[in-house]
Each structure stands twice: as structure tokens, then as C-alpha cells.
Amino acid sequence: MWAFSSPMISYGDNALEYILQIRGNKAFVVADKNIVKLGLLKLVTDQLDAAGKKWEVFDDVEPEPSLITIKKGGAAVAKFQPDWVIGVGGGSVMDAAKAIILLLARPDLEPDALSPAETFNFRDKARLMAIPTTSGTGSEATWAIVLTDTVLGRKLGLGTPECMPDVAILDPVMVMGMPPMITADTGMDVLCHAIEGYTSAWGTTITDGPGLIATRRVFQYLVKAYKDGSDLEARREMMYAATLGGMSFGNSMAGLGHSLGHALGALFHVPHGRAVGLFLPYTMEYLVNGSEETTKKYAEMARFCLGASGNDKACAKALIAAVRKLAKTLAQPLSVKDCGIDKAKYDKAIPDLVDRALNETMTITVTRIPESEDLSKMYAYVYEGKPIDF
């Protein structure tokens, strides 16, 4: 038996007005300092004011939210006792909001114990809303939570199906101000989610649709959004693509691009979307070289998204070439060397990178599961930008 989880989605122009409909009297709004500075938070609190709701803001969330920050948020939300917890921001903020609402229900728990094995029943106290301000993570449509243990220097993949947001609001006004580099980084994250979600060994007919449509939208609209941030149609469609990508991989699983990219980002502080987007075409080559099943899926995507023709392998290679062409157009790195990482330090870190990648769930959700030797070779090849030939 399978299950498909999704929030109720309010989308399109003026979607923020959905806030006028919510029940309850109090909202605890989770954000970061930059969202406040940009004036995006006020667009939300203005709607809360218009709805006659009391609200409190917790804006201490950092780019990689720490366990310490979540504990602070948990203490604040326990004191306020809201009817809604609303995450307004990128993936880090939305993940923080998910963790904070779980602590509202279970203030006794340490944040690193937020596990699928636990039952929280937080909806006895409050509902969860996510309002993304970037078009990338898809966190508004997944139940995953990524937190950072700053003491041990590790990232923690946490969460429970319970913390799928009740409502996601996709209002393009919230993403109109994204600068080109963030548009590119987060857009490559969308593409990686969509392609890997569609080709996951855990995927189903139900998860295929969102991944396929998200991929086509990225190829149609990402460059437009990158080149002209005021292009409302492009911003809107990329926002939808991000959520569809989240629905796809959130209900199947991401793949090797995420496994290798997570490790690189953790050790060398490469932004998430940039890191996973960098590894995406190389891991696609690896799968094409050893999996007819995934080659067929790539071919399906290439025909639908690009109008490619020919046999499955030719179409799959056309999709990989299109990913690289898109990354180049967006001034994304095409090799680890392009990230400015010192080769000696990188080579020394490869055993650690491999170990981290092997411990990622996404490494076993593909149709060709690599051993450590193949991962080591992949890391070496990607440093130089060498196509995967094994």
C-alpha cells in the first residue's frame, strides 16, 4: 500500500488572501531576518491584521537552522500557544516551522529526536501553514525537516508524515525579488527534485505526474526568471514547479545527485541547490550506464519535455545534455573545480564524502546502487568535469 501526501494549496495572484479565511485567533510566524528586511513578512502580517488575528514573529532562523534555534522557537511557541504556525521563507524557515510546531505538541523532546516513529498529534493544538519565498526546496509540499547539529558538525534528516503542512500558499509576489544567483541555485534544486523524483525506485504512477510537469516547467521558465526577475509568468510557473517537484520526490525520494551534493555542501559549504544541480548530470550518466529502467524513464522525460526523438539511450543523453546546457546558461558550476575548491583538500576529503553519501537514504532509492569504489570515482571525475564512463 502506498500513500500520497500533499497540503491544501492556495495559488496564483493574491493567494495570500487565503489567510482571511483561516479559523482561530493567534498565529506564530516563523521567518528569518532577511524576510523581515525585504518587507515580505509584512505582506503576511497585513493579512493577519485584516483577518483580526493576533500574531507573534520568531525571526531568528538561520540559513541552516540549528537545534539550538529550534529549542528557542519551541520555548517561544509554547508561551504564545497559537492556533497556527506559519513558516514564511525558504526551505530552512519552513523546516524550522515544522520542527517548532512538533515541539508545541511535545515540548519534552529534544529537536534531534523528531522521528517518524513518534506520534505528535500537534493538530490538537495548532495547524501548519507554509508560504515559500524561493522557488526551490519544495519544503511547503514535503514533511522532511533538515536541521544542523552545530556541536557535532552534522546535518540531520528528521521529520514525520504528520508535519506535512496543512496549507501551502503560492503567491508569486513572494518570489518577485529573488536575485539571479538565488534564482539559479534554487531552480537547479527544483530540476533535481523533479528528475530524481520521477526516476526514483520508490516512485509510482501517482508521483510521476508532478515530477514530469515540474521538469518541463523548469526547462520552459527558469532561464526567463533568471534573466528577468520581473517576469511574473516565469516567477509564477517556477513557484508551481518547485511545489510539484516537492510533491514528486517527497512522495517517492530524491536520488544520487542529492546524496553526493549533500556531502559536498556539508564539507565545503556549497549552497544546496548548486551542489545537487552540479552532481545531477553526472549521476544521470552513471545510471544510464547501468540501468535500462532509468534510461527508459529519462527518455520519457526527454520526449515529453524537450521533444527528443530516437532510441531510449539517445533520448536519455539528450536530457543529460539539456541539464548541462541549462546549468551553463545559469552560470552554475559544471565541475567541483568551478566551485573554487582546492584539489588537495578535496582529494583528502573524498573518503569522508563517500562515507556521508553512503549513509544518505537517497543512495539506495535508485536502480543502480553504487558501492564506495564507484562513489570515489564519481567524486574524482566531477572535480575535473569528466563525463562518467563507467
What does this structure look like?
With 390 residues, the protein is an alpha/beta fold. It has 2 domains: 8-174, Rossmann fold (3-Layer(aba) Sandwich), CATH 3.40.50; 180-384, Dehydroquinate synthase-like - alpha domain (Dehydroquinate synthase-like, alpha domain, Up-down Bundle), CATH 1.20.1090.10. It contains 13 helices and 8 strands. The chain has helices spanning 33-37, 40-50, 67-80, 91-105, 180-199, 205-227, 232-251, 256-268, 272-288, 292-306, 312-329, 343-358, 372-384, and strands at residues 8-11, 26-30, 54-58, 84-89, 127-132, 144-149, 154-159, 167-170. The strands form 2 sheets. Strands 1-8-5-4-2-3 form a 6-stranded parallel beta sheet, with helices on both faces. The protein has a two-stranded antiparallel ribbon with strand order 6-7. It is globular and about 60 Å long. It starts with 7 loop residues before the first strand and ends in a 6-residue tail after the last helix.
Secondary structure layout plus pairing:
Blueprint: E1 8-11, E2 26-30, H1 33-37, H2 40-50, E3 54-58, H3 67-80, E4 84-89, H4 91-105, E5 127-132, E6 144-149, E7 154-159, E8 167-170, H5 180-199, H6 205-227, H7 232-251, H8 256-268, H9 272-288, H10 292-306, H11 312-329, H12 343-358, H13 372-384
Parallel strand pairs: 1-8, 2-3, 2-4, 4-5, 5-8
Antiparallel strand pairs: 6-7
